[in-house]
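stage 2 :: seqdesign
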C-alpha cells in the first residue's frame, strides 16, 4: 500500500511580467513517484531541480498546475481511509 502516490505533477512559476508578456519557468515537469507506508525516502537533485516546490505541493502550501483537483481529491480520499 502506498502512503503517497504522485502522477504527472507539474508546476510553473511566473518569473517576469513585462508589458503583456509573461515568462514562466517549469519548476516541476511531469514528476511521478510512489512511497510505501512506513518507507523513508530522500528527494535529491541539483539547485533549481524543483525539490522545494514538490515538498511545498505535498505539504499543501502550493497548488499543482494542471489536474490539481484530481490530485487533491485523491490525496484527501487516501487520508480519510486511514
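stage 2 :: out
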Amino acid at each position: 500500500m502506498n502512503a503517497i502516490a504522485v502522477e504527472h505533477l507539474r508546476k510553473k512559476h511566473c518569473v517576469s511580467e513585462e508589458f503583456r508578456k509573461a515568462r514562466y519557468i517549469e519548476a516541476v515537469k511531469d514528476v511521478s513517484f510512489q512511497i510505501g507506508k512506513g518507507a523513508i525516502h530522500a528527494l535529491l537533485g541539483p539547485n533549481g531541480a524543483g525539490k522545494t516546490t514538490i515538498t511545498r505541493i505535498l505539504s499543501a502550501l502550493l497548488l499543482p498546475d494542471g489536474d490539481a483537483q484530481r490530485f487533491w481529491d485523491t490525496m484527501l480520499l487516501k487520508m480519510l481511509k486511514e
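stage 3 :: structure notes
- The longest strand covers residues 2-18.
- The chain has a mean pLDDT of 81.
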